[in-house]
UniProtKB/TrEMBL annotation:
Subcellular localization, as worded in the UniProt entry: Cell membrane, Sarcolemma; Cell membrane
NCBIfam families: SP
Family: Belongs to the major facilitator superfamily. Sugar transporter (TC 2.A.1.1) family. Glucose transporter subfamily.
Major facilitator superfamily (MFS) profile domain location: 1-426
Protein name as annotated: Solute carrier family 2, facilitated glucose transporter member 5
TM region positions: 31-52, 64-84, 90-111, 123-142, 154-175, 240-264, 276-298, 305-327, 333-360, 372-396, 402-422
Major subcellular location class: membrane
PROSITE patterns named in the record: MFS (PS50850), SUGAR_TRANSPORT_2 (PS00217)
Length: 468
């Protein structure tokens, strides 16, 4: 939304003048603009809340397809808002696009994680973050003045997100539904086997089907969990604490704020006004590159290593960035150090938190609790993004060059939490991960033998056995 800022603010002012013959003050225009920008986060929050029930009722694939209704309606409102002379249509459009984003960011990693083989689960789930970063770069590219970031074209820029929606509507129907959803939620064993066969391009491995059957046996007779039920269930206490803290940290670490601060830093480094838009594309490309690197490394190094490493590096860069901002008027090369910090900070974010955070609910919760877990994680992300958007201008005005110190503290505490409490999930089955969390959830209590139902697929039949 950076590119059309001035044009939309002018449009709001002209609309008020034409309708009611009122000339808005600068602070009033800024208020309306803040609403337009920030209400996207509230839309995302609403989307995160309805994503769970939608995935349970319609399935993962159909939920993503239905989600395009919000996107297309929002794009239609945006592209016609100028002709209708209605800034209210832009606000409604932003809410609808926010809902679309909230649903997508919950359902995509869930769909990918449930469809991927165990040894590639992290990399496949993380591809959602890779293409989200790619979408950011595309948005920055089409937003430059030479394409759609000019005064006559800003309404088309706001509606350009309909294009990937059309692509999804044309391609996604040809892909299979999540195998886990088909077997565990729908009880469709043949549908699950066919989906696995299409996804793998070969005959289904009995070990992979056994794992899904085991999860089905463990959740047999259980209905999908509601978010508030997870808060009262001690067996998922630390899983829930983990996703809430890590999802909140992803927004409170200041990555979105550093994008906001980038224009000021580039200007101080001597970059001309008309060149700053190209430097901004560089920041998006930086995150995209980092997400690709994370995708390549996550199955080698593991989730804990990538998360901890990302937050530790971000802590270091906030310290260096604060020093650079403090001395930028005393040392000629300090603005260039600030500029370097922006790119290294975004790289560190993309290498860890940007990708790994979204896949954790898939790996930490079973099929009945997973939609509710994503609702909680998504809600924390969008609420904290909204809060961040509201308080960051005040942080800048009150703390000045020290405005990134709170973000450094968040990054340091997040790294400590991951190192102390989050088990590694790389290549592990849900049962193995649950066993590790069982030690944290029931710490101090006498170890009990917990019966586990194991399932095996043999000659077209499901064989069940119970063991401690």
């Amino acid at each position: 939304m950076n590119a059309p800022t001035i044009f939309i603010q002018t449009f709001i002012n002209e609309t008020f003048l034409e309708r009611w013959d009122i000339q808005l003050e600068d602070y009033q225009v800024t208020l309306f603009w803040t609403i337009i920008v920030s209400i996207f986060s509230l839309g995302g929050f609403a989307g995160a809340l309805i994503a769970g029930p939608m995935t349970i009722r319609y399935g993962r694939k159909k939920c993503l397809l239905l989600n395009n209704i919000f996107l297309m309606t929002g794009a239609l409102l945006a592209v016609t808002s100028r002709a209708a002379k209605s800034f209210e249509m832009i606000i409604i459009s932003r809410v609808l696009v926010g809902i679309n984003a909230g649903i997508s960011m919950n359902v995509q990693p869930m769909y990918f994680g449930e469809s991927a083989p165990k040894h590639l689960r992290g990399a496949v789930s993380l591809s959602s973050a890779v293409f989200t970063a790619f979408g950011v770069v595309l948005g920055q590219v089409v937003g430059i003045r030479e394409i759609l970031g000019s005064e006559p074209c800003w309404q088309y820029l706001l509606a350009s997100n309909a294009i990937p929606g059309f692509i999804q509507l044309l391609t996604l129907p040809w892909f299979p539904e999540s195998p886990r959803y088909l077997l565990i939620d729908r009880g469709d064993k043949e549908g699950c086997i066919n989906a696995l066969r299409r996804l793998r391009g070969c005959e289904v491995q009995s070990s992979e089907l056994d794992e899904i059957l085991q999860e089905q046996a463990e959740t047999k007779g259980m209905r999908p969990r509601r978010p508030w039920e997870l808060f009262t269930d001690r067996s998922v206490r630390w899983q829930l604490i983990s996703i809430m803290i890590i999802s909140s940290a992803m927004q409170l670490c200041g990555n979105d704020s550093i994008y906001f601060y980038a224009s000021y830093v580039f200007k101080e480094a001597g970059v001309s006004e008309n060149k700053i838009q190209y430097m901004t594309i560089g920041t998006g490309a930086c995150e995209f590159t980092a997400c690709i690197m994370c995708n390549l490394l996550i199955e080698r190094k593991g989730r804990r290593f990538m998360l901890m490493g990302g937050y530790i590096l971000m802590t270091i860069w906030t310290v260096v960035f604060t020093i650079a901002l403090s001395f930028e008027h005393y040392t000629s090369w300090m603005p260039y150090l600030s500029m370097a910090c922006i790119f290294t900070y975004i790289l560190s974010f993309g290498m860890g938190p940007a990708g790994v955070t979204g896949i954790l609910p898939t790996e930490l919760f079973n099929q009945t609790a997973r939609p509710a877990a994503y609702m909680i994680a998504g809600s924390m992300m969008w609420l904290n993004l909204f809060i961040m958007g509201m308080i960051f201008p005040f942080l800048v005005s009150e703390l000045s060059e020290y405005c990134f110190v709170p973000f450094g503290v968040v990054c340091l505490l997040s790294a400590l939490f991951v190192g102390l409490f989050l088990p590694e999930t790389k290549g592990k089955s849900l049962s193995a991960i649950t066993s590790e969390f069982h030690k944290l959830n029931f710490k101090g209590q006498e170890e009990k033998c917990v019966p586990q139902t194991k399932a095996h697929y043999q000659l077209g039949e499901v064989c069940l056995s119970t063991a401690c």
